Amino acid sequence: MDYGKFKYEAAQKARDARRNQANTVLKEIRFRLKIDDHDYETKKGHVERFLNGGDKVKVMIMFRGREQSRPEMGIRLLQRLAEDVSELATVESAPRQDGRNMVMVLAPTRKKSDAKNEQRKRREAERAAKRDRKAERSAKESKVKADEAELA
């Protein structure tokens, strides 16, 4: 085997290994205990987006003043969130009080590398569709110009 060819194939393998390697990032989202329904849905959407991207999510509830005497309400809110995103994530660390905050960590059910590969395939499919539309448009325009030249 040629040394250049060997070197090239080794570089290809290394590049593919780097492409499939993905570092999971710990994203953080903060809630307040008295959160409105719409605000909750918005933040839940952010959590779902992070989990779909393959990142872990640290959910934090901030207690202020007398809210600190009601940790069971914080646990209830975190359990509700965990149930709402149960198809995307599992609870990695249960809710625990940490001073004025209550923290829970959610881990995605699918790997980040799988999410990146799916995202890459979707992007390539969109680019191919865009190229096809552009080719159709240019073919149509050239046909119209040919018809105009024929009439003239």
From TrEMBL:
Transmembrane segments: none annotated. Coiled coil: none annotated. GO terms for biological process: ribosome disassembly. The keyword Protein biosynthesis applies. The keyword RNA-binding does not apply. Residues 111-152 have a biased composition (Basic and acidic residues). Residues 25-108 form the Translation initiation factor 3 C-terminal domain. Signal peptide: none annotated. It comes from the Bacteria. One of its GO terms (molecular function) is translation initiation factor activity. Pfam families: IF3_C. Residues 92-152 are annotated as: Disordered. Keywords: Cytoplasm, Initiation factor, Protein biosynthesis. GO terms for cellular component: cytosol; membrane. Belongs to the IF-3 family. PANTHER family: TRANSLATION INITIATION FACTOR IF-3, TRANSLATION INITIATION FACTOR IF-3, MITOCHONDRIAL. This is Translation initiation factor IF-3.
